[in-house]
């Protein structure tokens, strides 16, 4: 029972600090936003998406079989489909199914 | 006005679809993990409602089952979730007029919701804030549903879902490609991608995120004048 109270406290702490990180910039710049922050707000989205792509692929091992090939093939297919159809849903569905087939059947 | 409500719901639902499969599956994975650690469906539900941060909740399973200290939990939360500062900074201007929706929009700003909403595109300016609110709400409902399913059903799934986690990667790659081909300056995208790759090679997969965020900020600060100048030049 003691452990459960402790676990509940930890869950609340995690929630509280996650909220804090999300709300902090809005609280700090509530009145007026400095030009530098407005600039960051404009350029960060594409930079962060680039970071998230790397973040998702961070555990891919390119030094051992299958050398990250399933990830590479599926990623290229997503880029190609997106350029062609401009429809995220199609790109994501196709890329994911292709990846699942690649790792379950091909590699 | 009468038929605007259903259509904005439909538009928001369509926008949120790419996240559906990934969130249900990743949420299910979290529910299974949490149940195996000895915490049942109420815990899964509460964590997904209150914390609502994917990787943090996976890490959190280890924290609560390991019975670590409050200080360790605080530091781990800050390290894992520091990137949310970035998301919020880039949404300050966009969420300015969101009114009653604003607190929830900020709370629900996960990686995936951010990637759906950060381009600022809304079907209609008039219903923009309701649209963003609904996209955020749909996404969280997928996540909560997934974690409850995982907790209740455990690992009895009828087919192999190996590799379905790639849907999240595919979502980010599609967003990245779309932003790239829809024009504008490519320096921020290259800075984000390049700095992260560089830091991954130097610091390794467990430690690269915070150095990468610092380096991205430095690079974007250094090129600030150039980007501002180019933007003005094209107008």
Write the layout of secondary structure elements.
The complex is a heterodimer of chains A (about 110) and B (about 240).
Chain A lengths: L1 H27 L6 H22 L12 H17 L2 H19 L1
Chain B lengths: L3 H33 L4 H10 L3 H13 L3 H12 L1 H9 L10 H6 L3 H7 L10 H26 L12 H16 L5 H17 L5 H14 L1 H11 L1
Helix pairs in contact in B: 1-2, 1-3, 1-8, 1-9, 2-8, 3-4, 7-8, 10-11
Structure notes:
The complex is a heterodimer of chains A (107) and B (235). Chain A has helices spanning 2-28, 35-56, 69-85, 88-106. With 107 residues, chain A is mainly α. Chain A has a domain at 1-32. In chain A, helix 3 (69-85) packs antiparallel against helix 4 (88-106). The longest helix of chain A is centred in the N-terminal third of the chain and has 27 residues, at 2-28. Chain A is extended. The N and C termini of chain A lie far apart (47 Å). Chain B has a domain at 4-158. The radius of gyration of chain B is 19 Å and the shape is globular. Chain B is mainly α and 235 residues long. The longest helix of chain B is centred in the first third of the chain and has 33 residues, at 4-36. The mean pLDDT of chain B is 87. The chains are: A mainly alpha (107), B mainly alpha (235).
Features:
heterodimer, A: 107 residues, mainly alpha, extended, B: 235 residues, 74% helix, globular
SS-based structural class of chain B?
Answer: mainly alpha
**Whole-number radius of gyration of chain A?**
21 Å
Could you tell me the number of beta strands of chain B?
Answer: 0
DSSP strand (E) fraction of chain B?
under 5%
| Assembly form of the protein | heterodimer
């Amino acid at each position: 029972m003691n452990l459960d109270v402790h676990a509940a406290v930890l869950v609340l702490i995690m929630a509280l600090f996650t909220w804090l990180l999300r709300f902090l910039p809005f609280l700090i710049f509530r009145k007026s936003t400095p030009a530098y922050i407005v600039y960051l707000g404009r350029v960060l989205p594409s930079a962060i998406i680039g970071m998230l792509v790397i973040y998702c692929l961070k555990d891919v091992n390119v030094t051992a079989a299958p050398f990250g090939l399933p990830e590479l093939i599926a990623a290229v297919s997503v880029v190609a489909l997106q350029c062609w159809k401009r429809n995220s849903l199609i790109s994501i569905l196709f890329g994911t199914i292709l990846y699942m087939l690649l790792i379950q059947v091909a590699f | 006005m009468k038929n605007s409500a259903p259509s904005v719901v439909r538009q928001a639902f369509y926008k949120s679809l790419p996240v559906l499969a990934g969130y249900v599956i990743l949420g299910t994975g979290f529910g299974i993990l949490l149940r195996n650690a000895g915490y049942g469906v109420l815990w899964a539900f509460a964590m997904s409602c209150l914390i609502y941060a994917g990787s943090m909740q996976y890490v959190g399973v280890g924290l609560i089952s390991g019975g670590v200290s409050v200080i360790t939990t605080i530091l781990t939360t800050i390290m894992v979730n520091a990137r949310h500062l970035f998301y919020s900074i880039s949404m300050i201007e966009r969420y300015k007029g969101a009114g009653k929706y604003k607190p929830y929009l900020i709370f629900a700003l996960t990686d995936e919701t951010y990637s759906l909403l950060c381009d600022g595109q809304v079907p209609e300016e008039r219903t923009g804030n309701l649209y963003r609110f609904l996209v955020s709400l749909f996404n969280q409902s997928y996540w909560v549903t997934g974690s409850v399913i995982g907790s209740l059903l455990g690992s009895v799934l009828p087919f192999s879902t190996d590799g379905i986690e790639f849907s999240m990667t595919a979502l980010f790659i599609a967003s990245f490609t779309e932003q790239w081909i829809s024009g504008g300056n490519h320096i921020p995208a290259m800075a984000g991608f390049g700095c992260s790759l560089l830091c991954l090679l130097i610091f390794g997969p467990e430690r690269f995120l915070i150095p990468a965020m610092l380096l991205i900020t430095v690079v974007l600060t250094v090129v600030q004048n150039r980007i501002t100048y180019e933007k003005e030049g094209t107008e």
